[in-house]
Specification:
The complex is a heterodimer of chains A (about 325) and B (about 300).
Chain A (H helix, E strand, L loop, with lengths): L1 H6 L5 H41 L1 E4 L2 E5 L3 H8 L1 H34 L4 H9 L6 H11 L7 H8 L11 H29 L3 H9 L4 H29 L3 H6 L11 H10 L6 H26 L4 H17 L1
Helix pairs in contact in A: 2-13, 3-13, 4-8, 4-10, 5-8, 6-8, 8-10, 9-10, 10-13, 12-13
Chain B lengths: L2 H4 L8 H4 L4 H29 L22 H10 L1 H33 L4 H13 L6 H10 L7 H5 L5 H12 L3 H9 L4 H12 L1 H17 L2 H6 L8 H10 L9 H36 L1
Classes of the chains: A mainly alpha (about 325), B mainly alpha (about 300).
Chain lengths: ~325, ~300
């Protein structure tokens, strides 16, 4: 056996392949089943989607190159422009309604010492209910019937009955309210855990310097949770861009397209309009994906504060300082 | 109540602040805000549960009454039987169990390879996984659906379960955990000529119970709530999962004899009770992981 190995040319491709396989086949065997699943459920569909976006389609099949025709078509569709505008409205409202509440609740939760566990539990509670159930529950709470619960509550305050989701001006804010109701608790916990990691001696030092409550918040608390705030902001933007089943279930994109989002429209192009238009659907979701990727790149830039290069510079600096000292 | 404030040493405000006038009032305001937040969080679900025991006409009765006029647990049984709801429950449980199994095994194995075995060239696929982590898979639902059709997997639970085996989020949870295991462990295993599979089952799995639990719970709740793919794949009413059936009931409301909104609310109540139960049992793990998960990666 030994001599045979010695005789073999170690620089030959066959030998290299052999040792590569010998060393690594076990590891690759472990990865293979999972990689097949990733290929089927994630990678292939994403690549096929790009192909579909640039193809003429019949049913769900691509039949020949179409260039940018699908994109030209959707940009000429008034509903697409509406969906694009709506998606940004969702974003705007989600920042107004949903972004600050978890920060404030997290701050308060970290200060209050009574019933801590109970408050935390209560605030997190909506996150455990499944999305579809939440959405249907709220669409019944938003029942426009003047005898329904919220309208009677409004009536008690002398406010006239509302159409809620059927009111074009209210539909997006109310859908965002539903999303916030479900999501704010989980986000609050993330802020809470960031707040609990703050070094207490810094508060002590600020107190020694005579800093009041607001100045402690401004100079100690906020700088510490700022990375978390930035991160969750970008994450929220990314997830709001994917808003889909909330308008699908609550309003089906209506009234008159007032709540249709890009992803919902992509779904409708393919699955609900009388004729299947897979090309338009793919173009629409590809357009959305590109926006999301751009946002993710920003997110990664924000969430990775130091690159290896920076760390190297730090090392060099540290060494230089040592020498000087 | 204020005694605890005298001993409060941590946070933005401590005992020395609460000695000053006005601050104890501020504290009560803070507590009040939390009470309001908790009420806002809990009341809609309480409303749902109470309303589901009402008659259809009671939902819009003037003046409004929060509690049902005739409270009877029988209504749960009535609605359950009317819809033959047991089968949807069973279907959903089957899908959820399968999803948990695939999620733990396949994401766990791939994370093990990425984190510990590291066969040559694994970085390419690690990069691909991270890349696809950025792009939500729901944007590629059309080709995924047509592939499922091509493989004749319409009305099959296989794709609904298997898709959880390719989840970048769970994969990263596993990988982060494996990365934190002491490397000396695997050194020892290599010395003892323990095979890669042996290392996985004899060392990694026993040491990873907490993270396996967390991923299992997350997958279970996700599969229980999953909607879009089951909705597209399941066409046979006897195979539907709870969420798909609820959506169908909502969209066909009025066309089914005797099925009014009050009964739909009851169905919602029935569907969320298991979720509340699971949360009550695994509260600590779920809340702990959801606080840590998002920040890490």
């Amino acid at each position: 056996m030994r001599t045979r190995y010695l005789l073999e040319d170690r620089s030959s491709f066959g030998y290299k392949l052999k040792t590569f396989l010998k060393k690594n086949w076990g590891g690759w065997l472990i990865m293979l089943p999972s990689l097949i699943l990733f290929a089927f459920f994630v990678w292939a569909p994403l690549v096929q989607n790009i192909k579909l976006a640039f193809s003429n389609t019949r049913g769900f099949e691509a039949i020949g190159w179409a260039g940018f025709d699908n994109f030209k078509m959707i940009f000429a569709d008034p509903l697409f422009l509406k969906a694009l505008r709506n998606t940004f409205m969702y974003l705007l409202w989600s920042i107004v309604i949903g972004f600050f509440i978890p920060i404030i609740l997290g701050l308060i939760l970290s200060e209050v010492v009574h019933f801590k566990a109970l408050f935390r539990l209560g605030i997190y509670f909506p996150s455990i209910v499944s999305g579809i159930a939440v959405v249907i529950m709220w669409s019944y709470l938003f029942d426009p019937n003047p005898g329904a619960v919220l309208n009677q509550a409004l009536d008690a305050f002398g406010i006239p009955a509302s159409l809620f989701l059927s009111n074009q001006k209210l539909t997006i804010p109310l859908i965002v309210l539903t999303m916030t109701w479900r999501g704010a608790g989980a986000t609050t916990l993330i802020y809470l855990s960031a707040l609990q990691n703050i070094d207490q001696s810094q508060y002590e030092a600020a107190r020694m310097d005579g800093a009041g409550m607001w100045s402690r918040i401004r100079h100690v608390t906020l700088p510490h949770i700022m990375p978390t705030i930035k991160l969750l902001f970008i994450l929220q933007v990314i997830s709001v861009f994917q808003v889909f089943y909330e308008p699908m279930v609550m309003t089906d994109g209506g009234p008159d397209g007032a709540s249709v989002s890009l992803l919902l429209l992509a779904y409708q192009y393919a699955f609900t309009n009388g004729q299947i238009d897979a090309g338009a659907s793919a173009a629409c979701s590809l357009f959305l994906s590109v926006i999301i990727i751009l946002l993710t790149i920003i997110y990664l830039k924000v969430s990775m504060p130091k690159k290896d290069g920076d760390r190297l510079i730090d090392k060099i600096k540290a060494r230089r300082e040592k020498k000087n000292a | 109540m204020l005694k605890a404030l005298k001993n409060k040493t941590n946070g933005i405000l401590n005992y020395s602040d609460y000695k000053k006038p006005g601050y104890s009032i501020l504290y009560f305001v803070l507590v009040f805000i939390l009470v309001v937040a908790v009420l806002t969080a809990v009341t809609p679900v309480l409303w749902l549960i109470l309303s589901s025991f009402k008659d259809a006409s009671e939902l819009t009765s003037v003046p409004y009454r929060l509690f049902p006029e005739n409270f009877s647990l029988k209504k749960i049984g009535e609605v359950w039987q009317m819809l033959d709801f047991g089968k949807y429950f069973l279907n959903t449980i089957v899908v959820a169990i399968g999803a948990v199994l695939f999620s733990v095994v396949f994401n766990g194995l791939l994370a093990y390879a990425f984190s510990i075995v590291k066969p040559k060239g694994y970085r390419i696929f690690y990069g691909l996984v991270m890349l696809s982590y950025m792009i939500p898979t729901v944007t590629a639902i059309v080709p995924l659906f047509s592939n499922i059709v091509a493989l004749n997997m319409i009305n099959s639970y296989a794709p609904l379960m298997l898709c959880y085996g390719a989840n970048a989020y769970y994969l990263l949870m596993f990988k982060n955990y494996f990365d934190s295991l002491p490397p000396s462990l695997f050194e020892a295993a290599r010395m003892d000529k323990c095979s890669k599979w042996g290392t996985f089952f004899r060392i990694v799995v026993p040491m990873s119970r907490p993270i396996i639990g967390v991923v299992a719970i997350f997958t279970m709740t996700a599969a229980w709530s999953d909607f879009l793919l089951p909705y597209l794949v399941l066409k046979d009413n006897n195979m539907m999962t709870i969420m798909v059936e609820i959506f169908n009931l909502k969209t066909t409301m009025g066309s089914v004899q005797g099925f009014g909104p009050d009964k739909l609310l009851m169905v919602l109540t029935i569907s969320i009770l298991p979720q509340i139960l699971i949360f009550a049992i695994f509260q600590k793990q779920i809340m702990g992981a959801s606080a840590a998960g998002a920040v890490k990666e």
